[in-house]
């Protein structure tokens, strides 16, 4: 029996040594990452584990997951001094699972799957620089428009669904700005398609510089764009749209040293009661005001709130709030 005990001790020590050796062998070439592999949004997004990551739907969470069943501060993933990683459940309502087993705390191995909520699964893995670059390229290709580097149409659909759920949960409002380039076909016909591509890229830069970090700008069509504004009422959204309109009008667009006059028309819509309205309703309303802006002279902002009728199948009420017209509108190119 004592010999068996000694052998058991030697086996345990060897296992710990082997673990330490594996961790040390990774050295500087492989680093721990958390990757979202399943869920409502941000599939493929990577988070480097340097110290601690907090997962949840609260604004202070490092890995934000807007999904029913996820607590505000759901779980944390910690890199220990010896190189191991642990996941700790933060007394979440619906629990944290590792490879299908509910845990309070668990040490993670390469490839382990962490599930929170109904559909969100995170993968823990060690990756070298080449793996990181490949994963980042895949994520960018799946979520970004290749020309403008704004969110693409699929990502826009995910974002707006997520933001409506957030607004309904927190009793806030959600605003959407829809806009496009005035007479864009004329720009392509006059200056060529490379110049048209330049205009779209430059426009994306101007818009990105004019919105908050938490806002999301997307290219949803050829020369069609949208900006999702979290917890912004109609007045604030109109102010934002007007700032963007002025910025575009005063920005020099000069491909191949040719000066192109560029303006945009914008439609703004706000869901006053997100729990009773959906993404399709919000998008259609913003598109309607965009159409009004173009029909009333272009290079301007039209806006309003949308309030669904008590009858879910009824047409929404569109109540115009403002039409912003520049004092001296420049003739669009």
Can you put this structure into words, describing what you see?
This protein is of the alpha+beta class and 333 residues long. It contains 7 helices and 17 strands. It has helices at 2-26, 129-143, 153-170, 184-191, 193-209, 234-250, 279-295; strands spanning 31-38, 46-48, 52-56, 63-64, 75-79, 85-89, 96-98, 101-103, 105-108, 113-116, 120-127, 174-181, 216-219, 224-230, 264-271, 301-307, 317-324. It has a 6-stranded antiparallel sheet with strand order 2-1-11-10-7-8. Helix 4 (184-191) packs across helix 5 (193-209). The longest helix is centred in the N-terminal third of the chain and has 25 residues, at 2-26. Residues 1-14, 310-322 and 328-333 have low confidence and may be disordered.
Summarize the structure.
The chain is 35% helix and 28% strand. The strands form 3 sheets. It has a 6-stranded antiparallel β-sheet with strand order 2-1-11-10-7-8. It has helices at 2-26, 129-143, 153-170, 184-191, 193-209, 234-250, 279-295, and strands at 31-38, 46-48, 52-56, 63-64, 75-79, 85-89, 96-98, 101-103, 105-108, 113-116, 120-127, 174-181, 216-219, 224-230, 264-271, 301-307, 317-324.
Rg (C-alpha, Å) = 25 Å
- The geometry reads as globular
**Beta strand count:** 17
Which percent range fits the helix content?
Answer: 25-40%
> In which order are the strands of the major sheet placed?
2-1-11-10-7-8
Distance between the termini: 92 Å
Mean pLDDT: 84
Number of helices: 7
Determine the structural class based on helices, strands and strand pairing: alpha+beta
Note the quaternary state here.
single chain
Largest sheet: 6 strands, antiparallel
